[in-house]
Design a protein that fits this description.
alpha+beta, 25% helix, elongated, three-stranded antiparallel β-sheet
Length: 138
Amino acid sequence: MHRLFEIATNGPGLYEFTREVSKWVDLANVDEALLTLFIRHTSASLLIQENADPEVRTDLTEFFHRLVPPTTDPTMGYLTHTYEGPDDMPAHIKAAILPVSLQIPVISGRLALGTWQGIYLFEHRRAAHRREVAALLR
């Protein structure tokens, strides 16, 4: 089974879509499988991260902003791919560092996530986007 999830973003940050994926897996009516998620973009990533405390999402967003600041930051003067805006090449760097695909076991018909784990799209660009995540359940 396969599906394309569309996730609307509105600037940098983590956007949880665990509920949507879980509903789709429930409808698949499989006992055991492996779910693969793949983001179809080069300036956003996928993460499994804590979903209990929203400060985790804020801190991760801030950390990666400091790790790879926009091209307007003097430390980023070496970058040459700058014509799509000061957040574009830094977004590509973040996507190169972070995962663009995830694999999650399905056991007894449910995602085998831990108690506080959620599935997130990590948007690295400032503008709003409609991101696509391809899902394959085997």
